[in-house]
Amino acid sequence: MLYTRLDFCLSRCLFFFFKQKTAYEISACLVGSEMCIRDSTPYVITDSGKQQALEPIHYEIDIPLSPIELSTPDSPYQVVSTALYNIVFYVREGSTVTINGEDYSDLVNTEGGKVSYNATVQPIGENNFEIRVRSQYCRENTLTVTLYREKQEIPLDLASDIASTNDDGLMTVHGTTLPGSEVKVLSPYSDLDITNTAVDGSFSFVAKFDKIGVNTIIITADYPGKATTRVEHNVTYVPNVDIYSRKAWSMKDMYTNYMDNLSTRVANQQIYICQKAIVTSIETTKPQRAFVNVGTEESPMLVYVENGSRTTWEVGKCYDLYGDAYGMYDSKPWLIVRYTYEKEP
Which of 283, 282, 266 is nearest to 324 (CA)? Predict the structure, then answer.
């Protein structure tokens, strides 16, 4: 038996593995395979000083995929309305990154591995961006991001720098279309300027946001003999914290009132503060949703919260959370949180 021989030899003489593979050789064996099979031959030195080979040892090494985490968009398939879209993802520092076959490894941030790529999106339907990542000692990983931009008989483009967030309820929108087209804005707006539309196709207007959260800007362009083009662009409107926080009611004090007047509170997007809320559990991560306790351990008052703030919550930590009424979940108040402030318990 091999075990008996090794046990015997170890009690009498030096035991070692001969010729270990270098890091380069190990890395080379990882290409295109989920498993790396290694062979090593152990040797012993006999009483006479000679090396004697024992039976080879075979073992397998699981090869992990190169890590890649998509940040923007939220999912690999996204409907967009602009000619440029910023794809953001995270890889391990020092990774090799290609997008549609072109090397973009120089975009990998040296602190955190963030990659920010400005994708050109044509109005042809689906635009596919194949991201390939290779990290040291990992096998290659692939992620395909599909950006869908509706086919257009009449070109209708919003400015590439149009924002997706807003904090004052008004936003100037610039765009271009086929000269001579009729431009209509179907969402709340003011100050539509089509002075030069007949000449160079340019137009502008001020979009108005009448609700907290996602507001959709809707624009159409018509031209004789061509199908109407319709473009939609989502903007998340959240008043700045000074304005938002002034309207907040205490969730602890108004817990029962929230449930008794649910439809009114949701319709009005009533704002609440969960003071010194303890995160009891994280239910989902994208988006992050959790239960927090605004009561005490003896008399808990649980609230279901969805994270729309920039802070990632952790179980057991204490926060002041500002959020607006969304509904009920598991018979508990459900808030969309816009601002988070960490507190001492």
Answer: 266
